Amino acid sequence: MTVPPEELELAAAFPPAERDRWREMVKGVLRKSGAATEETPLGEIEGLLTRESYDGVPIAALYTRDDAPPGRPGLAPRVREVRPDGEGLAGWDVRQPHAHPDPAVTREAVLADLENGATSVWLRLGEGGTPVAALPEVLRGVLLDLAPVVLDAGERAAEAAEAFLALVTERGNQPAASGNLGADPLGLQARTGTAGSLEDAAALAARCVREFPKLRAVVADGTPYHDAGGSDAEELGAVVAAGVAYLRALTGAGLSVDEALGQIEFRVAVNADQFSSIAKLRALRRLWARVAEVSGAADGTSAQIHAVTSSAMMTRRDPWVNMLRTTVATFAAGVGGADAVTVQPFDARLGLPDDFARRIARNTQTLLLEESSLARVVDPAGGSWYAESLTEELAQAAWTWFTEIEKAGGLAAALGSGLVADRIAATWARRRKDLARRKAPLTGVSEFPNLAEKLPERDAAPARPGGGLPVVTYAQDFEALRDRSDAHAEANGARPKVFLATLGPIAVHTVRASFAANLFQAGGIETVTGAPEEFAASATTVACICSSDRLYEEQAAEAARVLKDAGAVKVWLAGKGTYEGVDARVYAGCDAIEALETTLDDLGVNE
């Protein structure tokens, strides 16, 4: 009988991999692209492939065992979370949002969700949602001892909480009712510019501890910072600062540290950047475990995390692609260890979701839980050298931002002074530039737009109160150009148009003609293709020459002359060369927004 070795080496039959050998092979590839030369030292090769996140976290091309900090599931620093026995197969809480202003419609949707896969309800109440007074009607038929209810009532949080607690008491569900009352005074300040009452939040928490043992009272919501264009570390640093402020308020009101920690839930956004979202949730547990440790909490304290698919990443144009975005984000939330997950319906940017959109949102989670068995694996990302390293780097960056907020006097003071707004605005400016240059492509919007699409029609969603941090979306600049084109088409019977003047055979000009067509269509501009001599019949005044660099040297200047003689007011060229008669260029990495705005102006399209 053969005794298996204690440690199985899967690569035992292969020669050991050497990092320098890998660098040599990479250098060979980079030399062909011009990114490296024969003289480039091997030690610099990896740096050529390394990029930085918006938090300054380096994203390398290769990770090894040396890059991953040690850690085991369920142990400090709580990065690799393990649910208690019996909960692992249940997975996470499928939490669906509801904000319809009609209580009857909301009640019907709530019951449909709970009967078809959702396990809890998230109600937006007051301005921007369902009337607070209608809460008993909305929850008629909902078993409050089984289905957790989460409230989100903004400045009317205390009123909504009282209404819910009265309903729970009336039904005799005090010992079993669960969920969260949604008190978030600092989140309210971030959204509206007006802070809520920490004292009221603390009083609600104390009451929950005394009378409603399974209810939480407080949410530390990070989505306002994400929705304003903030980075992952900026969202995490702010949400931890909010959590610390709430911890101080609750313990100041007489709760023990452990009781106070048990009253706080975190809400953060997850997006289609899979690994960053996974690392964000794991880093949040790391950060909060450190706060709990220095606060004297009992061992094993961990953050309760509600992950919500990003609003900023959702698009109005080609909204069907949102299903793919939210699927990736939900996968990341599950792998990252979220306790509750909310999937925004794919039509969220168009208005109030319909039954189909809510069903798709529910089923996205059901498929991942029941068919992909995602929740049956303890910390699926654990042991990935990249995921472990990214988690640690992100946690360090977030902790640095958190301490900066604390030095400024805490989150309320940092919001009031503009520290948070200025920091996030700078990050948004960098992200916006990358979006404009299509370095962060948006499928269906900045890439592969469909000008013939017919958008689903939805009832308008009630506007949520603003006045605090701005609310942005990644697609907003491109969608504004599409709106401008739509208005022109409605007023004039046709879309603005650019003529693609192709030189040479199809095999030579197709690549750049396709690139130019894709770029101009991202701004709602139709394209027609032909030889330069056909421009006069195109019914437009803007042209773009498309071909190879070799043919540009031979024919670009003459083509530009022919186009201008035929009435072209602007001649673009797809590529980077400079030629007589060519006014501007479009190329990979150019500022597409600037090019499109200029083109619409040249075509006489009103803003």
Could you describe the 3D structure shown?
Helices cover 44% and strands 12% of the residues. Helix 9 (232-252) runs parallel beside helix 11, helix 12 (321-336) runs parallel beside helix 13 and helix 17 (476-492) packs parallel to helix 20 (592-602). The strands form 3 sheets. Strands 3-4-5-6-7-8-9-10 form an 8-stranded parallel beta barrel, surrounded by 8 helices. A 5-stranded parallel β-sheet has the order 12-11-13-14-15, sandwiched between helices. Strands 1-2 form a two-stranded antiparallel ribbon. The protein is globular, with a radius of gyration of 28 Å. The chain has helices spanning 19-33, 45-49, 103-115, 135-138, 157-171, 185-192, 198-211, 223-227, 232-252, 257-261, 274-294, 321-336, 355-371, 385-407, 411-417, 419-436, 476-492, 506-521, 549-565, 592-602; strands spanning 51-52, 58-59, 93-98, 120-124, 149-152, 179-183, 215-221, 264-270, 305-309, 340-342, 497-502, 526-530, 542-546, 570-574, 584-586. It contains 20 helices and 15 strands. With 607 residues, the chain is an alpha/beta fold.
